[in-house]
Amino acid sequence: MIADPLHDLGLTEGPDGPVLRVWAGAASGVDLVIDDAPTERVVPMTRDANGVWSGSDPRLQPGRRYWLRADGEPVSPENVTTPFDPTVDLLDPYARGLGRTGRGAWRGVVVDESFEWGGVEKPGTPLDHTVVYEAHVRGFTRLSPHVPEDLRGTYAGLAHENTIAYLKELGITAVQLLPVHQHVDEERLVAQGFENYWGYNTLSYFAPHAAYASRDAQLAGPSAILREFKGMVRLLHAAGIEVWLDVVFNHTAEEGEDGPVIGLRGLDNSYYRHDPQGCPST
Fold first, then answer.
1. Which of 27, 100, 104, 274 is the most exposed place for a label (fewest CB within 10 A)?
2. Quick check: is 276 in a domain?
3. Are residues 68 and 106 in the same domain?
4. What was the pLDDT predicted at 279?
């Protein structure tokens, strides 16, 4: 079997400690920056033949904030529209946890991914026996009198015993959740005083949306938010209910050509589909 050169992207545990791997095929340099308050530690990353950059540092432990910076010159129409800027702080596209600075900037946060699944596996219900309930995590239990008030509108509320009993009574075998990835409101909506309730403006595809976690989990940080999400999945699976996720890849929180540079676009514009002239293509 041929090894996938793009495997193990994001933060993993290597033989000598934590390793971060990110693809930035056209970059000439990528730095891993670690919050080492009151300063920052800059770790130059090394590139392999497939355009994957790697960096390691023992400081990459749960709770630590980190980000990336990329440098280079556009080398093809696909990334002419967004030149590299080594002064811009970028998100790791595979970050499992996110946090914000005092100035509101997003940062990756190292999380503790350990979790005891207790032998619970996904039910694997045959499609011809599947009954799907599409749900919004916040909206489904936000006003439910059958869920404790502090859990309403949360991952834990969706997995509460009364919620599961209701789903089972309906004969549901799978819940299809509207976007649960960390998302933000579009800039134009913010300017108009609105918000994106549905979540179709993804900031990070691998970090659970923090606002859907219980207050206690939010206060405890990204690791606790991830545990609450996994706990929801475990309880639903144990009840014979599959968890399906609604994922939309045709746009992100970086929005259109003139949108903010948050992560993907700053690492390599080829993360997005373009026509031969470098214009966005669907």
1. 104
2. no
3. yes
4. 66
Q: Half-sphere exposure of residue 21, counting CA atoms within 13 Å on the CB side?
A: 15
Q: How far is CA 157 from CA 27, 153, 165, 238, in A?
A: 44, 6, 12, 16
The verdict on residue 208 lying in a domain is yes
> Range of 27's domain?
10-112+261-271
- Per-residue confidence at 5, pLDDT binned at 50, 70, 90? low
In total, how many domains does the chain have? 2
Instruction: Give the model confidence (pLDDT) of 199-244 as tens digits.
Output: 999 999 999 999 999 999 999 999 999 999 999 999 999 999 999 9
Q: Are residues 106 and 176 in the same domain?
A: no
Closest CA to 47 of 80, 66, 64, 70: 70
Beta carbons within 8 Å of 81's beta carbon, 6+ residues apart: 257, 269, 274, 278, 279
- Residue 28 sits at φ, ψ, to 5 deg, of -100, -10
User: SS3 sequence, the chain?
Assistant: CCCCCCCCCEEEEECCEEEEEEECCCCCEEEEEEEECCEEEEEECEECCCCEEEEECCCCCCCCEEEEEEECCCCCHHHCCCCCCCCCCECCCCCCCEEECCCCCEEEECCCCCCCCCCCCCCCCCHHHCCEEEECHHHHHCCCCCCCHHHCCCHHHHCCHHHHHHHHHHCCCEEEECCCEEECCCHHHHHHCCCCCCCCCEEEEEEECHHHCCHHHHHHCHHHHHHHHHHHHHHHHHCCCEEEECCCCCCCCCCCCCCCCCCHHHHCHHHCCECCCCCECC
| CATH label of the domain that carries residue 265 | 2.60.40.10
- Is the pLDDT higher at 138 or at 2? 138
Do 71 and 144 share a domain, yes or no?
no
Q: Position 210: which residue type?
A: A
